[in-house]
Fold this protein.
Amino acid sequence: MFLVIDRLSHTYFTKTTAVTALAEVSLSVEKGEFVSFLGPSGCGKTTLLSIIAGLIQPTEGKVFIEGEPLWAQETSAKAARRAAGSDLSTRGAVGYMLQQDYLFPWKTIEENILLGLKITGTLTAETKERALALLAEIGLDGVESYYPSQLSGGMRQRAALVRTLATDPKLLLLDEPFSALDQQTKLKLEELVWKTLKQYEKTAVLVTHDIEEAIAMSDRIFLFSRRPGRLVRTFIIPDELRHCPPFAARQHPTFSPLFQSIWKEMEALESV
Amino acid sequence: MNPSNERIRSLHHEYLAALRKERRVIRVWQVALLIAFFAVWEAASHFRWVDPLLFSSPSAIGKLFIEKIGDYSLLTHTWATLFETMLGFIIGTVGGALIGALLWWFPRLAKTLDPYLVVFNAMPKVALGPILIVALGPGFTSIIAMGVVIAIIITTIVVYASFQEVDPNYLKVLRTFGATRYQCFKEAVLPASFPAIISTLKVNVGLAWVGVITGEFLVSKQGLGYLIIYGFQVFNFTLVLMSLLIVAVLSTLMYQLVAMIEKKWSNRR
């Protein structure tokens, strides 16, 4: 198992409240697999992603990436090092894509896509060339010296994908990366991301509230209930859909029945 | 297609011409206002509508200006003031930005110092003048210190606030790469706050002038502030008004210089 999440719970504290965002979530993801966390807003899926990314320490439970515990039983020295952000062991292991591109407006596209390499201290002539080749491969050659404001939304999100992939992460975390895009751009980008990840055999976790997107892109779908976020069901996408690229999958005869059954399940969750 | 194209082009031409004309009209009025101001002043003084002893006249100021340029005394005073203002401005701005960075780096320090910053910000800093002169001596050091004290607190507050307002998602991007606090500061916090820092420059030009002129009032050794207070005491209002005019011109020039730097910076974005 590549990624194992074991009885993970997380509670947010404020002065007046304690909100449990995740309760007893256990799941595992195989190497090279593409899974989706599907659920209504407020089901803690982004919290779960942040925990996997090592940005938040969960109140309870463990996360293992390739057998290495991410948070469990940290010594205080290690916790301090991580708080200072200098724990090298997790550096570059995961790549995170946000809802918006968050390209740095004061950096050129080239500087933006090399940012991860620079931060992790792995910027060499070789890795730089690889990142620029990836940029060209994704259809963005010739924009290296542009600033993000000169690019369209779709191009910016593609550049953000290159920035994420440039450090060659073992695990990709996609936090609704298509939700801010218009329909046409979104479909194209889904296709591109899917193909790129398959080509590089990356393991990926997609967070979304879009049922169609989840079916079209993933191998398995984890359905979460609203607060506190619980894993209620796992849908396994049939082989004939899973091997289709997203756009073709949407046209497939089995797509619609699957959509209906997930839809019903989500409706049932809402009414509880 | 072609005729309509030509029509649009000619309309565009007319539009540009109208814009240019509007700009010219405004400029003519501005110059006219300036000339009228000095002309009315001169006439008022000449025909004794106002007391020339108190309000002087442009011609008297001009005469005094040439005379003072001739014996180099004006140059010495102007240079002293300009030097103090620039130094006060630079130290105040850079110091404020550094303290702002320090507060961002140590959140506990920021929380601890918060009430003291509020007190310092609310206090009229010129009231510190006598203490500064006693502590630093009646020379240009305490005058520069006045400029610094006035500019540094507000710079600290503005810069620290802008550091805190940086979109946390930029930091999230960096932290997913495992960035250190220093890397977060260098790659996101500082560059994102640059517009705010530049805008404090503009404010600080004005504040540094206030501090330095007040300092010269108190120290009374040299500088344009000294000339103003000296002219007031010996009832030479020609000297007072001439110094005022020089301060107005110099502070405007300094402000424009900062505005140019700002424009250059924002163009690089």
In short: Residues 82 and 146 of chain A are 34 Å apart (CA to CA). Residues 3-86+206-271 of chain A form a domain with the Rossmann fold fold (CATH 3.40.50.300). Chain A touches chain B at residues 53-55, 84-88, 90-92, 94-96, 98, 100, 102, 104-106, 115-116, 119-120, 147, 149, 167, 173 (CB under 8 Å). The longest strand of chain A covers residues 18-29.
